[in-house]
């Protein structure tokens, strides 16, 4: 593990050097974890050309010392020293960047008041761009999370029965993932029946399952902080012609996009491949916006797959491909898989079957 974090720190320092930035203040917890290995919060990371400082307090000091790699851990006394004063005492001269997306205005104002002697500039997306290309350890963590989700779904589907509620099944699914070793849930599980399945990010409730209801399940597990994200849609019993048409169309849209995945392909091209199928079948007014997203320490991270993103896929990207259609009076269908982009194509990380019909 030491070598992994040393390599990441070296890479980010090289990027800083190219931009003629001398120091970097890191505030985002996921970015701190990526660069140091520390998995808690209430921490701040200062990277200089020669040193790395992880600033925390007594609550996390011992944990930080055991988790953080190639960092000097600083225990700040919050009663006697402000965060700005602590940073001031450690910060060398030169241009200092900071990841502005992860800090509140009041906290930044306090820090900045102590750094009048330093030239400061906001940095957007520098660490996230590096995180978009996953190393072997990250890939294996997401594979493990996806495998947990596959097994948990198969186990939970055995409990599907007439009259069961959305909330009951969602609770069982979350429990099974944790029992199988997940650190938690990747996000609040989405599990919806019938016309409620047309809510792309609806919350499970007390709705009971009836014959011919659509069942949309979007969920994920977490291993080492890395997330999986999978969606499957089912029908409880024999589908109607319209339900079957929706499902077949969405599956074809996903396959059309997947057929074009490989290093060098643009995200907006993948989005176009999927939309062509959905629009040709009359779902242009009911299709979800965007086809997918990167996956890692964040649930949604670079690259984003939509009509506007010109990001070109690279080997090592882990992305979701998740077309969907949502008809308010009938329900929704979404099919989502996690994949690893390779030079010549892709590798599935999620392997749950895509059978549509659940026997009633």
From TrEMBL:
Residues of the Creatinase N-terminal domain: 9-133
InterPro entries: Creatin/AminoP/Spt16_N, Creatinase/aminopeptidase-like, Creatinase_N, Pept_M24, Pept_M24_MAP, Peptidase_M24B
Top-level taxonomic group: Bacteria
Residue ranges annotated for the Peptidase M24 domain, each copy included: 141-343
UniProt xrefs under SUPFAM superfamilies: Creatinase/aminopeptidase (SSF55920), Creatinase/prolidase N-terminal domain (SSF53092)
Assigned keywords, A-Z: Aminopeptidase, Hydrolase, Protease
GO MF term list: aminopeptidase activity; metalloexopeptidase activity
Transmembrane segments: none
PANTHER family the record matches: AMINOPEPTIDASE, AMINOPEPTIDASE YPDF
Name of the featured protein: Xaa-Pro aminopeptidase
Species in which this protein is naturally found: Pseudoalteromonas amylolytica
Taxonomic lineage of the native organism: Bacteria, Pseudomonadati, Pseudomonadota, Gammaproteobacteria, Alteromonadales
